[in-house]
Automatic annotation (TrEMBL):
Record field: transmembrane: 15-34
Protein name, as recorded: Cytochrome c oxidase assembly protein CtaG
GO CC list: plasma membrane
Known role: Exerts its effect at some terminal stage of cytochrome c oxidase synthesis, probably by being involved in the insertion of the copper B into subunit I.
GO MF annotation list: copper ion binding
Entry keywords, A to Z: Copper, Membrane, Signal-anchor, Transmembrane, Transmembrane helix
Amino acid sequence: MKSWVAKVRHANRQLLFKLAVVSLLMFGFGYALVPMYRAICEALGINVLSLAERKEQAKNTQVDTSRTILVEFDANARGPWDFKPAISQMKVHPGEMATVMYTFRNRQERAMAAQAIPSYAPKQAGAHFNKLECFCFNEYTLQAGESKEWPVVFVVDPKLPKDVHTITLSYTFFEVPGKKLAGL
């Protein structure tokens, strides 16, 4: 009888050890996710810097008054809502901070969760278009009939290739699928 009890205790100790190792590995993986996420986002060129870091970057740039870049603003809404920029275009000098406002109105009779995704044309302009403040950084909940106005504060990097004279900033605003909002 003692040998059977000893075998069960030994098996329980082995299981406890394995579970402890798995728990430690899971904790280590969870702890490593933040730097891994940051590295992946930086490698893909996704906005990952905080607003303070972006403002510091912008403060250290030099304004190139010898060049003028035409920035065109486009807005696409995927759903029953209104979404548009306050102006369709603006001229900026590389290194100069600029702001454009976008308006949004939920025309639905229900609340919705939504987010905007930016895109740039020409493609190489995306790496040189630094947004300091943007509604595209967050997901928003808008109530039925609610209107919002959001700024996009940006700087065109002076390292933008000399052959690029026009940049188109386009946003697609879409409803976040699968969101269960209160009051629905």
